[in-house]
Structure formats: C-alpha cells, structure tokens
Amino acid sequence: MNKQLLREYAKLIVRKGANVQEGQIVVVKAPVEVYDFARLVVEEAYKVGAKRVFVEYNDVINSRNDFVYQDIDSLKEVLDYEVDKCHYLVDKKYCAISLVSPNVEALTGLDSTKIQARSQERNKKLAFFSEYTMNNDGQWVVAGVSSKIWADKVFPNCSDAVDKLWDAIFKACRVEEFDTIDNWTNHSNEISKHAKLLNDYDFLKLHFKNKLGTDLEVYLADANLFCGGDDYTNSGIRFSPNIPTEEVFGMPYKTKVNGKVVATKPLNYQGAIIDDFYLVFKDGKVIEYDAKVGKENLKSLVEFDEGSSYLGEVALISHSSPISNMNILFYNTLFDENASCHLALGASYPSNIKNGTNMSRQELAKLGSNYSNVHVDFMFGSSDMSVVGYTRDGKEIILFKDGNFVI
C-alpha cells in the first residue's frame, strides 16, 4: 500500500477530522488489527501539538469471550476507575479519534440479552461521556481502516482484498498524494451550502416514498437545523466528525413520524447482521417490525430503552453519489450510510436545533428532540426514492426524484 496515501489519510483524520489543538489530550480508539495505522495517527497528533495521546485498543474476539464466559452480573459491572477516567477526559476537554475496522460476524450467535444488558448498564453509567460528543463539547471523528478481516468480508475470495479496501476508503474520503486537505475542505463546504439551501426552505415535514414499500411522513423538530460537512464545538473549533461524509441531516420530531420504512442495506449492530427488515411508526414510535435476518438483534435495538423506538435523525443523500456509485457493500454504517438516505433510531443531535447545544435536555424535548442511550443509523434510500418537502408557509417542494436531489 502507498505509504504516502496512508500518511495523507492520517493527516486528514487528525488535522481536519479531529482538528487536534495544541496542548490538547487525545484518545485514539482502534481495533488491535490496525495498530500500524493507529501509530501514524498518534504521530500526527503529536506533530500538531497534542499534549498527550492515549491509545485504547479493542479486540472483538476477547469481547466475544467475555460474553460467552462471564455471567450477566459481571458483564453489567462498570468499574469505578472507568467512570473516573471518563470524568477526567471530559474535564480536560479531550479530543476523540475512533478508528473502525469491523469484524462483522464476530458476535453472531451470542446471547443477545447479555449484549444488551452490558450496553444498557454502560450507557447508563457513562451517559455523560457520550453526551460530551453528542453535544459537541469537544471534537470527535470516526474513520475507517482496512484490515484483512474486514476486507475479506467486503471482497471475498480476493487475494488483494486489503489493498482494494484501502483504495475504496481513499476514494470515498478523497485522499490523494498531495491535495487531500484541500479536496476535503472543498467537499465539506459544498455539503454545508446544500444544508443552508434546505434550511432556507424552512420545511415542516418530509414525505418519503418508493416501490419497495417505504411510505413515511417525517415532521421535523421545531427550529430544525439541517447540518452537513464540518461541525463546530461549543467553543468554536471546526471539525469533521465523519470521514467520509456525503449527508445533509436533520432532526425528526419525536412524536410526529408515521408510516412504513423498508431498509435497503444490511445493518451491522453490536457485531451481528440485521437484514431485509422494515419498521412501522405511529406517532413517532415503532409499533411493528420484522427482519428475515437478525430479528432478535433488531428487537434488542428497538427495545434498548424508551428512546430507541423513536427516530433521532433523518439524512438526505443522492442515490448517485461517489460511495453509492462504487457499488460496494462495506458492512459498516460509516460508509454504507453515505451511499443512501438513512434514518437513525435513538438519540437526536442537539446541533440539529438552532442554539440546541446550549439547551437542556428538557428544553430540547419540548422542541421535538429524542433522548436515548443509543444512536443507530440504517439505510433506506433507493434509485426510485421520491422525497417531497412541505414548508411551514404551505409550499410543496420536490426534493428527490428517482433517488436523487433535484434542488
């Protein structure tokens, strides 16, 4: 693999994604399989002035052993030192860099009640930690890294699968030998312009429809703010939370979503695949669902907590987009969501409300925001998707025809 491209990608993640500030503490989370690339990210973070970089490696095989051999009470225990560490990082206004390289089927066949119980307890005890990033109190970024396990899933029976996946990642993230930072900046600015265009219309609701069975009406939260491209922390630091990204996304009104949505791509949730599934909403809540693959895992998601059966995000992406046109199923939401319109079950982003990051949870709820300890995207865009927007002053605007933006 071209080492120059790897270094350019590391620069993109650190300098534009996380926008690490001089003197800042950085946490890099990564699967053990990608330690070599993680080292490049750590080095780059120090080069731009990070005070200290902590690396937290995770091993999904060890996680599987935890679920197999530990009892449920042990799995649910959140140790004091873990809570103290998270408080320390939040107090220091740390910067989070998450490198992902999924082992898609590593947790398949496990007792889903164990997985859910552990997640629920950790999310409850560490809610303040996830809210730090959800509220944009500090910079954060998620980026993909090629590995043999992931590459073999994406490109089965291919001798150069790892390199092929790297090539796809570089293409999706606009990584080149010399112009990567400029390419990304220009791309992000274009997405931001599209978000502004949608905000200028001041939509009350969106209506999605296609031949697969999706017929869904989504009201938008009061004072909804479509976002896309770069984001800003509450202290004004610009960063790019998702690399890659193609989406413009807003906030559904929690109790004003009605109809049926049919997923168009598999969902990798907690190490298991959910595929060929649909959800039916009434007054915002999922009242019916089914899946031909992974129904129990879908049940765990929908019933994770009170908020997980409501929507927290609606995202618009043309079917004809760079990632979609590659015609690659990445089995990873970070990439697959940027090939398709998508929705998210669970928590809303406060940044999708005007001045929302400065509001309390109660204030956000009055405007239609949803709270949950999860936020899980799933894809439902298609080549025949139509989207009609209805403005607050009574206009009807066609946003999508044949799967693509027409505005």
What labels describe this entry?
9-stranded antiparallel β-sheet; alpha+beta; globular; 14 helices; 407 residues
Q: TL;DR of this structure?
A:
This protein is an alpha+beta fold and 407 residues long. It contains 14 helices and 21 strands.
Shape: globular
Low-confidence stretches: none
Find the structural class using helix and strand composition: alpha+beta
Mean pLDDT level? 95
Explain how this protein is built.
It is a single chain. The protein has 407 residues and is α+β, with helices and mostly antiparallel strands. It is globular and about 55 Å long. The model has no long low-confidence stretch (mean pLDDT 95).
Write the layout of secondary structure elements.
Blueprint: H1 3-18, E1 25-31, H2 35-47, E2 52-58, H3 60-69, H4 72-76, H5 80-91, E3 95-100, H6 112-125, H7 127-134, E4 140-144, H8 148-154, H9 161-172, H10 180-201, E5 203-209, E6 215-220, E7 227-228, E8 231-232, E9 238-239, E10 242-243, E11 248-250, E12 252-262, E13 267-269, E14 272-282, E15 285-293, H11 295-302, E16 311-316, H12 322-326, H13 333-336, E17 342-346, H14 361-366, E18 375-379, E19 386-391, E20 396-401, E21 404-405
Parallel strand pairs: 1-2, 1-3, 3-4, 4-10
Antiparallel strand pairs: 5-6, 5-19, 6-12, 7-11, 8-9, 11-16, 12-14, 13-14, 14-15, 16-17, 17-18, 19-20, 20-21
Helix pairs in contact: 1-2, 1-10, 8-9
